[in-house]
Amino acid sequence: MSAWRHATAADPPERSGYLMESQYATQSRPNDVLAPRTGRPASQRTFLVTGSTGFLGRALIARLLSEGHTIRTAGRPVDAANASASASIRLDASVEEWRDAIDGCSGIFHFAWSTVPGTANADPLGDLDTNMMGTVRLLEALRSSPQVPVVFASSGGTVYGAAETLPIAEHHPLRPLTAYGASKVAAEQYMLLYRRTWGVDARIVRLSNPFGPGQNTNGQLGAASIFAARALNNQPIEIWGDGSAIRDYIYIDDAIAGFLAAMQAPRSRFGVIEPIINIGAGRGISLREIVSFLSHILERPANVSFTPGRGFDVPASVLDITRARSILGWSPTVSFEEGMSRYITYLKELPGIRGEW
């Protein structure tokens, strides 16, 4: 018996079977990135999103729903705002359950990952068991539906390791310094293996450091968002190292547009190259520069504390996005300064911000 069921807007967020489906009867926008080439209404397209309760997953789902698409999700139960898109298929689900989830889908966004760079080293086996096995089961299910494109969210900030040159292009050697980066590389290799051997339409996006509305500012990932929230709350900003570390920060709307472009591109667009694309701003910002900009727009100095650097933090990571521009026709549209200004405005409207402006 199939575990599939339809979700409705009346479903509470905690009500979820293995698999659920949601469709909003919204009118597709004229510039719908995923408008099908078949002439069917965009609302008839169905996408599976794993990692649906994470930062990227929630932002992507909001975008897809706004364009009238049908969404199947995989992840933890979501909050009330996304109740109608609530679903859960665990990463340790069987291949048969993954096949059930994939059936009828136009594409898959594989965002699910249970660790972050700062935690994976503490439990490499757990990282491997959960993330790698779930990814391979998904790929195994796709052997029977190889025409369904799957876009995998890899990590442009961890798979390359210490950069030999900047900006970092996709052909740069892969030398991860964390279990998180190593498992992302391994997942990439399985994606490519299933593409070469069984024709699975796997596509890999190496994302830089996304920031913006919806990011968890109480976790260990997302320095730009965390710094902004703490500055607004007049809380100390903790910096590992001396603040000179440079990263490539991309606003969440641009990141989502990059994933959509990777999904929409015809398979032939990749030609003879492996379908690996850097998505980032292509510009480096140091931690000190983030603090300086926050102090400027808030018109008060930030309270900063420094702690010893972590061994896996590389001095600089900036992505070369030439391939994304040429193959996908995608480019970032929101500068760091504009994105941070938008994010500050968003944070000011949230309850619980104690800062004075």
From TrEMBL:
User: Where do the NAD-dependent epimerase/dehydratase domain residues begin and end?
Assistant: 48-280
List the Gene3D superfamilies.
NAD(P)-binding Rossmann-like Domain (3.40.50.720)
Q: In which pathway does it act?
A: Bacterial outer membrane biogenesis; LPS O-antigen biosynthesis
Q: Pfam families in the record, alphabetically?
A: Epimerase
- Family of the protein in this entry: Belongs to the NAD(P)-dependent epimerase/dehydratase family.
Name listed for the protein in its UniProt record:
NAD-dependent epimerase/dehydratase family protein
